Amino acid sequence: MAEQSPSPLVLIVEDDDQMRRYLRTGLTAHGYRLLEAGTAAEGIRLATEYPPDVVLLDLGLPDRDGIEVARRIREWSTAPILVLSARGQEAQKVAALDAGADDYLVKPFGFDELLARIRVGLRHAAKGPEGDVVRSGALVLDLGRRRVEVAGKEIHLTPIEYRILATLAKHADRVVTHRQLLQEVWGPRSTEQTHYLRVFMTHLRRKIERDPVRPRLLQTEPGVGYRLRSDEPA
Ligand code: CA
Question: Of 4, 65, 121, 133, most Cβ neighbours within 10 A?
């Protein structure tokens, strides 16, 4: 972050006072500016009036579902939307991600994890993914040149494997849902074939992971999708 630029503006859409206080205390201490909404309607209104740099979005809101908030904000804003979900909200979490949210955290979550996810969101929003080189451990993926290296050696991926990996790399460190991956790789009509993905992930892991049984780079988000870890710059 450049020193003269104002600190990022975070919009919190959350009806639980205790959770809001937790977020407010921690984020203020880390220099973020805040906007707070306790309802979906207020969240959408604030987002429109004061375009935020990041949105933290609870799903269980008193007036409308958080999924609707994600969809509405995504109609005009590219700000990263980070869903704060409770355990057992798998289906809603996936729906929110498919509606345009970027990532999620399951309550209760640690503050360091939240800060890391906010940084990932801001970084992606700032630079955009095109032509990037994504590094993750020994893996180097050059999206501009369509070249994949592991430990300095070029590896061969099938076209499907490459598209899966490139899709995950464009969203590095953020979760990509099964539906999003299937749409990107196989097209809009193939969103139910999640078993394909499992097979290709196994192949990909054999090629890029040091220990494919305990993957460190290509992580499974159970019931939701996959996430490619990149090396977060300091
Ligand atoms: Ca709630």
Answer: 121
Cβ neighbors of 91 (< 8 A, separation 6 or more) are: none
State pLDDT tens for residues 117-152.
999 999 888 765 555 788 888 899 998 889 999 999
Residue whose pair of structure tokens reads 């509405």 in the numeric block: 72
- Is residue 148 within a helix (H) or strand (E), and if so which, with residue range? strand 147-150
- Which residue, among 142, 131, 66, 161, has the nearest Cα to 105 in the 3D structure? 66
- Contact (CB, 8 A) for 169 and 134: yes
**Which residues have CB less than 5 Å away from ligand 1 (the ion)?**
15, 58, 60
Helix (H) or strand (E) holding 82, with range, is strand 81-85
pLDDT in tens, 174-227: 999 999 999 888 887 776 778 889 999 999 999 999 999 999 999 999 889 999
Give the total residue count for the chain. Answer: 234
Geometric angle at alpha carbon 178, from 173 and 183, rounded to 5°: 105
pTM above 0.70, yes or no: yes
Cis peptide, bond prior to residue 233, ω within 30 of zero: no
What's the 39 CA to ligand 1 centre distance in angstroms?
9
Q: Which amino acid appears at position 158 of this protein?
A: T
